[in-house]
Amino acid sequence: MTTSTNTTAARTGAAPPPAARTAGPARVLSDLAATASAEWVKLRSVRSTWWGTALALALTAAVAPLTAVATIGNMQRDLIASADVPASEMAVYAAVWGAQFAVIALALPVMTAEYSSRSIHPTLQAVPARVRLLAAKTVTLTAFVFVSGLVMGAVGTLAAHLVMLHPLIEGYGTLRPAQAAADVVRMSVYLALVAALTLGAGAALRSTAGTLTAVFALLFGLPVLLLLLGGGAGAHLADRLPLLAGVSFLDSVFVVGRTGDALSPGAGGMVLLCWTAASLVAGALVLTRRDA
Question: pTM score, two decimals?
Answer without folding.
Answer: 0.89
